[in-house]
């Protein structure tokens, strides 16, 4: 039985295309695809504004897709493999599930996590009297609500939102470059999504005065259905290659603030040679054993009896 031959690219363009899709030690910035089924104006407008927050790492599909990713994810997996995307969002509207919005991600072009929400309330950017956000700005993500730290399902949702909205991976961020804040507040089973602009104003000191201005979009979401990966698959998806992991240095560690700490090992110290403060009471006497012994013998000899005047007359 003949083995299947490996197809090689015939053009330089095909070679570059396959090279971008090869596995890498350090992944590229994750891109997202936005798909829609039978939608209404509210869902369509909400997806457009979410695309504007995700750009330039987002692609919007205008064609309607008659499928439901929670029930049958094969179509989403095929489109994600074609676009080389690991994140997706799907919007739809029906009588059973009105104003439906799905967030999900893939691992090895297979569904990893998926959350389905219903949009209860939506405010567009147009309703806010504020300037538009800068394209490609890296947002600051804030999560408020105890379940984000305690509930396993909400912890996974928090991880998905961070993966979805964190923007490009950078090594350093300047203060003026942090322009957008995305806040996710969990209360009474609802998730309140808000977007703010950071304003740095004069304060009379070197530290500027920070103010927040809501710029939209604003969404109130209610969770409907979830589809989570198993713990083993999630652990495999988060696995970091050994070549990328930083090499551990002996006796060197870092604290929670990133400060470098080291442990030093010294030989046993001889405290008898320790230099102390020079005081008269702390001076060491020189050892003079022979002289001290001689003085001690003289002190122990009995004293001679002196003759009295009466004895001399006799």
Descriptive notes:
There is one protein chain. With 314 residues, the chain is of the alpha+beta class. 24% of the residues lie in helices and 28% in strands. A hairpin with a 7-residue loop joins strand 3 and strand 4. The strands form 2 sheets. Strands 1, 2, 3, 4, 5, 6, 7, 8, 9 and 10 form a 10-stranded mixed beta sheet that branches. It has a two-stranded antiparallel ribbon with strand order 11-12. It has a domain of 203 residues: Brix domain (Rossmann fold), CATH 3.40.50.
Summarize this structure as a short list of keywords or feature phrases.
Rossmann fold, 8 helices, 314 residues, ten-stranded mixed β-sheet, alpha+beta
Give the biggest sheet.
Answer: 10 strands, mixed
Here the CATH topology of the domain at 28-230 equals: Rossmann fold
Q: If you average the pLDDT, what whole number results? A: 83
CATH superfamily of the domain at 28-230: Brix domain
Beta-strand residue fraction? 25-35%
What overall form do the CA principal axes indicate?
extended
CATH architecture of the domain at 28-230: 3-Layer(aba) Sandwich
Structural class by helix and strand composition: alpha+beta
- Report how far apart the termini are: 148 Å
Q: What is the alpha-carbon Rg in Å?
A: 38 Å
Summarize the structure.
The chain has helices at 12-21, 41-54, 74-83, 147-150, 152-165, 231-237, 289-300, 309-313, and strands spanning 32-36, 58-64, 87-92, 100-107, 110-123, 139-144, 180-187, 190-201, 209-214, 218-227, 252-254, 260-262. With 314 residues, it is an alpha+beta fold.
């Amino acid at each position: 039985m003949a083995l299947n031959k490996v197809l090689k690219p015939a053009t330089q363009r095909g070679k570059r295309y396959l090279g971008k899709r090869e596995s890498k030690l350090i992944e590229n910035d994750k891109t997202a695809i936005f798909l829609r089924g039978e939608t209404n104006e509210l869902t369509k407008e909400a997806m457009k504004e979410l695309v504007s927050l995700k750009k330039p790492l987002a692609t919007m599909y205008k064609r309607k897709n008659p499928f439901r990713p929670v029930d049958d994810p094969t179509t989403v997996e095929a489109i994600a493999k074609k676009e080389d995307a690991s994140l997706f969002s799907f919007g739809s509207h029906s009588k059973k599930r009105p104003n439906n919005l799905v967030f999900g991600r893939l691992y090895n072009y297979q569904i990893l996590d998926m959350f389905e929400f219903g949009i209860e309330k939506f405010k567009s950017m147009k309703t806010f009297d504020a300037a538009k956000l800068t394209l490609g700005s890296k947002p600051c993500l804030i999560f408020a609500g105890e379940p984000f730290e305690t509930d396993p399902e909400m912890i996974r949702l928090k991880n998905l939102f961070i993966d979805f909205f964190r923007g490009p991976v950078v090594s350093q961020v300047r203060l003026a470059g942090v322009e957008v804040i995305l806040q996710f507040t969990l209360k009474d089973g609802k998730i309140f999504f808000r977007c703010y602009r950071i304003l740095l104003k004069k304060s009379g000191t070197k530290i500027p005065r920070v103010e927040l201005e809501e710029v939209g979009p604003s969404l109130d979401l209610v969770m409907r259905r979830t589809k989570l990966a198993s713990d083993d698959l999630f652990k495999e998806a988060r696995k970091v290659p050994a070549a990328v992991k930083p090499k551990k240095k002996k006796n060197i560690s870092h604290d929670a603030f990133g400060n470098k700490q080291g442990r030093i090992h010294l030989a046993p110290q001889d405290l008898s040679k320790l230099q102390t403060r020079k005081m008269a009471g702390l001076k060491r006497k020189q050892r003079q054993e022979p002289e001290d012994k001689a003085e001690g013998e003289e002190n122990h000899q009995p004293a001679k009896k002196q003759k009295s005047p009466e004895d001399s007359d006799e």
